Amino acid sequence: MPEPRILMTGLVLGESPRWHDGRLWVCDWGAHEVIALDLDGHREVVLRVSSFPFCIDWLPDGRLLVVAGSDRRLLRREPDGSLVPHADLAGLCDRPWNEVVVDGRGNAYVNCIGFDMMAGEEAADGVLALVAPEGSARRVAEKVAFPNGMAVTPDGSTLILAESYRSRLTAFDIEADGGLTNRRVWAELEGAAPDGICLDVEGAVWYADVPNKCCVRVREGGEVLQTIALDRGCFSCALGGPDGRTLFMTAAEWPAAANTTGGTRTGQVLAAQAPAPGAEG
């Protein structure tokens, strides 16, 4: 694959990239900003969020969901730009919440890593929750080791989860009521720490890896198909662009990026041509 090009610099810690309405949307955790940028690098601060961490995805009707991690809430952006409560997650886990993915029915899957890493707490198992379209929330999986990126297959039948502290991708069947069953290993990733993930139309998964400073494409079972080496930790990835074949990666120097006061801005957004377009769940 060609060397990735730098699309954007100056982020503190970029996360949760999503291609939406012709632009890439990125969460800068340190600056508390949701930024939208085009392929020429022109950027716009679309939203400011006080919480840390925070991640985004869209409901089928186009409204934006925002995980306000430290507030233990899922917020919804209305057409007038206001942020309103969508679900209260505090009763399901009292530690900061992390990633979100929305399926075609409007179900939002949100995960909590189970401990406050930035506060130096000892690692503990996390949980996955389902937030139904009307805002009710319930746990659908437990005992996951640092749950991170998630993806839903295009047919809505399977959720794939990165378990960063188990060096694996884990799959669940999605039931008619949105519940998760048939938990299984999708890919063992020896020595890896999978963070953000995305799925392509060939059924392969790209995963970002912070300590190994790379983004890797694997098929079910764990066969490595491509590896993109970076000079800093890779936190997340997304497929998009006009033909869906651009792989976007957010990267930053770690642990320097843990200084989320905004003083250290080593964060980048990089883009590379991918062998297959992205799949939408």
Strand content: over 45%
- What would the CATH topology be? Neuraminidase
Q: Order of strands side by side in the largest beta sheet?
A: 1-24-23-22
Which second-level CATH architecture applies?
Answer: 6 Propeller
- CATH class placement: Mainly Beta
Cα gyration radius (Å): 17 Å
Distance between the termini: 26 Å
Range of helix content: under 10%
Number of distinct helices: 0
General form: globular
Low-confidence stretches: none
Averaged pLDDT? 95
What is the H/E string?
Answer: EEEEEEEEEEEEEEEEEEEEEEEE
Count of separate structural domains? 1
Major sheet description: 4 strands, antiparallel
Q: Helices and strands: which structural class?
A: mainly beta
The CATH homology group name: TolB, C-terminal domain
Work out the number of β strands. Answer: 24
Binding site for a divalent metal cation: 15, 148, 195
InterPro entries: 6-blade_b-propeller_TolB-like, SGL, SMP-30, SMP-30/CGR1_Lactonase
Binding site for substrate: 98, 116
Keywords: Metal-binding, Zinc
